[in-house]
Write a structure and sequence with these properties.
The complex is a heterodimer. Chain A is mainly α. Chain A has five helices and no strands. The N and C termini of chain A lie far apart (about 55 Å). Chain B contains 21 helices and two strands. The radius of gyration of chain B is 22 Å and the shape is globular. Classes of the chains: A mainly alpha, B mainly alpha.
């Protein structure tokens, strides 16, 4: 029972499901269009089964990740919201808001107001320079 | 040729070369800004210049941009350009242990060497080299992609099954969008934004950079070890390492030149092939992936050599080797220059002035690269982590957006980044996924076209297994896969003999 809780079991099941999905969808494609999806799906399916079998039968040593989980997850949420907000509220505005949030999330010790302010100022200058370079020099139409 | 050299060293052309290399390096260092973009932005400025000067400026920017990708690869584990993928494999581990300045310096000299060899090949043997490009058909591209994919097994030593699974994930991602042959719409879930598939630049940024960014906030450890106080670029140390690795350096530069000649193969393939060969022939194979200087040398010399190599089919055949070459070809047409073998005769002064200018730009890359590298390394290692995380966040957002000004790319970048981060927590590396993503379309197109040709000529087996270049690539693929196993077995037998004796 313990071996079923090996760290590789969950990803292996994810790959089996993904592989199965790819193969299932490939059935409705043309012959040539289906070759590589079938190959990729088959590879994930067989690889997933092999990984699961190896985890359950041999219980290999699996290194646990280093560091916390909560803070990166929070940062990921910030990045996702930033990506969604970018076209709606504009690059410079969303970048400034998000950068401040990232600085607060990434600060591990008790934040000192002066330090945080200096970092925010530095990033704000970076955002201004980037907006200038991309918008004016490179003629990239920023939202 | 002497006249051409004299034309190349006029103050104006020297200034163009210097400014071009400087700008190109900065642009190439920023994830999301590519060599293509750098060259495309500069093209309009060249219309008022004479053709040779315009070409020198474009070539210098291209050279700088390809080299610049190494900075982000080494300091942030995010290849600034696809050509720097293999550089990240050993460059970032070097930076993590405090050798980031050494890695940047090594990459500078290695890039210069590769660039010089590529430019010399262009100078001396361009027309005959171009015939090699013509001999490469769909099947050769297919086997070249398979060779690249076989590197997954090599790069994932110690976690081979997870590496192979990663490769299949990359292959699966590469099938999203319209099929290369046949036009099937695959795995788009009805989203028009996915019809073009997953763009490589946002994918690179997401798969490499987002996990690094998330890892930065997971611990209190510094992002990379700080530079030693009062340290220089460690030029002497870098030169000693390069001299010790001279065969690797020359071989990788030649590989880069040859791969650069093949249209659509590009710097990424060149860097990976050279890296694989360096690892296979190294006496310290186990060091690769953990901060081996030889890995950085191989990748950087190869990807810079593709610049000169890529100009061979561009100038001789009118077939652009890479997207920047396509833009430069367009610029040549605007200038009224007809490309082809006759270019080296009818417009010899222009062509040779350009080639000498490219050589000079490559040499100028050394002081430029060392200066920028020193500033970049000191900045990255001294900036407080929260500010660095925010700055990287801004760069990856703009980098993903600027490629095609498509907000969907930004969302895709974050989603792929989340996937890569989650996968990394379970021991799956990003490199195999990226390899599958880049090489999948090349392999698929080559396979399908080869199949169609073989079926039409009623010689399918001969088409795939009967062509000399294909056989050579298959041989190298098998060597890459089997050689490590054979040497490992031999080493084990040698170790067992004293025990039995």
């Amino acid at each position: 029972m313990d071996k079923l809780r090996h760290r590789d079991v969950i990803p292996s099941l994810v790959f089996v499901l993904l592989g199965g999905f790819f193969i299932f969808e490939a059935r409705s494609m043309t012959t040539f269009g289906a070759v590589f999806p079938m190959l990729a799906g088959g590879g994930m399916l067989i690889g997933g089964l092999a990984l699961c079998g190896r985890a359950v039968l041999f219980d290999p040593i699996s290194q646990r990740p280093v560091g916390t989980f909560g803070r990166p997850l929070l940062l990921l949420l910030v990045l996702l919201l930033w990506a969604l907000a970018l076209p709606m509220i504009g690059f410079a505005e969303s970048a400034l808001l998000a950068a401040v949030t990232v600085i607060l999330v990434a600060t591990q010790e008790t934040p000192r107001a002066k330090t945080i302010a200096a970092q925010i100022l530095g990033v704000a200058i970076l955002i201004a320079v980037i907006t200038l370079i991309f918008g004016t020099l490179l003629k990239v139409q920023l939202p | 040729m002497l006249d051409a050299f004299v034309s190349a060293v006029t103050p104006f052309n020297l200034l163009l070369a210097l400014v071009g290399v400087f700008l190109g390096t900065i642009i190439g260092a920023l994830p999301g800004l590519s060599a293509t973009m750098a060259v495309a932005v500069l093209v309009p400025f060249t219309f008022t210049m004479d053709p040779a000067s315009g070409l020198i400026a474009l070539g210098a920017v291209y050279t700088g941009a390809i080299y610049g990708g190494a900075y982000a690869a080494i300091l942030v584990n995010t290849p600034g350009t696809p050509a720097a993928i293999a550089t990240a494999l050993d460059g970032f581990p070097m930076a993590k242990r405090g050798d980031g300045d050494l890695a940047v310096t090594i990459s500078c000299f290695a890039s210069a060497t590769g660039g010089i060899i590529g430019a010399l090949a262009l100078l001396v043997v361009a027309p005959p080299l171009a015939t090699i490009a013509l001999k490469f058909g769909p099947v050769e591209y297919f086997w070249l992609a398979i060779f690249g994919l076989s590197l997954i097994a090599v790069l994932s030593k110690g976690a081979t099954l997870k590496g192979i699974l990663g490769g299949f994930i990359g292959l699966a991602l590469s099938t999203v969008g319209s099929a290369v042959v046949g036009g099937d719409v695959r795995y788009t879930f009805g989203q028009p934004a996915l019809l073009g598939g997953i763009h490589i630049i946002p994918a690179l940024i997401g798969l490499y950079c987002v996990p690094v960014l998330l890892g930065m906030v997971a611990t209190n450890d510094p992002h990379i070890e700080q530079a030693a106080a009062g340290g220089s670029n460690r030029i002497g140390e870098a030169l000693r390492l390069l001299w010790r690795s001279k065969f690797n350096l020359i071989r990788s530069s030649v590989v880069g030149t040859v791969v650069g000649i093949l249209p659509a193969a590009g710097g990424a393939v060149a860097g990976l092939v050279a890296y694989s060969e360096a690892r296979r022939t190294s006496k310290q194979k186990d060091e690769f992936g953990k901060g081996a200087a030889d890995g950085v040398i191989a990748s950087e010399s190869a990807n810079s050599a593709t610049v000169g190599g890529g100009f061979v089919p561009t100038l001789v055949l009118g077939i652009p080797g890479t997207p920047p070459d396509a833009i430069i070809l367009g610029a040549l047409m605007v200038q009224g220059i007809r490309v082809g073998p006759q270019l080296f005769v009818e417009q010899a002064s222009t062509v040779y002035t350009f080639i000498f200018g490219l050589l000079i730009a490559t040499l100028l890359m050394i002081p430029t690269g060392l200066l920028i590298g020193r500033v970049a390394f000191k900045s990255i290692s001294n900036i407080p982590k929260p500010a660095l995380a925010a700055a990287i966040g801004v760069l990856i957002m703009i980098g993903s957006y600027a490629v095609e000004q498509n907000p969907t790319h930004v969302v895709m970048m974050v989603i792929l980044g989340a996937f890569a981060w989650g996968a990394a927590r379970y021991g799956f590396e990003a490199s195999p996924i990226v390899l599958g993503l880049i090489l999948g379309p090349i392999a698929e197109q080559g396979f399908v076209q080869g199949w169609l040709i073989g079926t039409a000529s009623e010689n399918l087996l001969g088409e795939f297994f009967g062509r000399p270049i294909s056989l050579a690539i298959i041989f190298f693929t098998l060597m890459t896969l089997l050689w490590p196993m054979w040497t490992e077995r031999r080493a084990r037998k040698i170790r067992e003999v004293p025990a039995n004796g």
